[in-house]
Amino acid sequence: MPARPRLDAANPPDISALGRRGAWPDGNSWGSMTDLSRRYDVLVVGGGNAALCAAIAARRAGASVLVLEAAPKFYRGGNTRHTRNMRCAHDSATETLSGPYTEEEFFDDLLRVTGGRTDEDLARLMIAESKEVLDWIQAQGVRFQPSLGGTLSLGRTNSFFLGGGRAMLNALYLTAERLGVAVRYEAEVVGLDIADGMFLAATVRTEGREHRVEADMLITACGGFEANIEWLKQGWGEAAENFLIRGTPYNRGTVLRMLLDAGVQPIGDPTQCHAVAIDARAPKFDGGIITRLDCVVFGIVVNRDGQRFYDEGEDIWPKRYAIWGRLVAQQPGQIAYIVFDAPALTQFMPSLYPPITADSIRALAEKLDLDPRALEATVARFNAAVRPGTFDHTILDDCRTEGLDPPKTHWARRIETPPFHAYPVRPGITFTYLGVRVDREARMVMADGTRAANMFAAGEIMAGNVLGQGYAAGIGMTIGSVFGRIAGRAAAAELHRRRNARRDAA
Amino acid sequence: MTLHTPPGHASAPLAEADRLMTVCNSCRYCEGLCAVFPAMEMRRSFADGDLNYLANLCHACGACYVDCQFAPPHAFQVNVPQTLAAVRADSYRRYAWPAALAPIFDRNGLWIALIAALAVAAFIAGFVAWNDAAVLFGTHTGPGAFYRLMPHDAMVAVFGAAFLYAILALAMGLRAFWRDIGEPAATLAEPASLWQAVKDAATLRNLDGGGVGCYGADERPTDNRRLYHHFTFYGFLLCFAATSVATLHHYGLGRIAPYPWWDLPVVLGTVGGIGLLIGPAGLLAAKWTRDPALRDDARFGMDAAFLAMLFLTSLTGLLLLMLRATPAMGMLLALHLGVVFAFFLTMPYGRFVHGLYRFAALVRYAKERRQMAEAPAGSA
Ligand SMILES: Cc1cc2nc3c(=O)[nH]c(=O)nc-3n(C[C@H](O)[C@H](O)[C@H](O)COP(=O)(O)OP(=O)(O)OC[C@H]3O[C@@H](n4cnc5c(N)ncnc54)[C@H](O)[C@@H]3O)c2cc1C
Ligand code: SF4
Ligand code: SF4
Question: Quick one: closest CA in A to B67, which residue?
Answer without folding.
Answer: A167
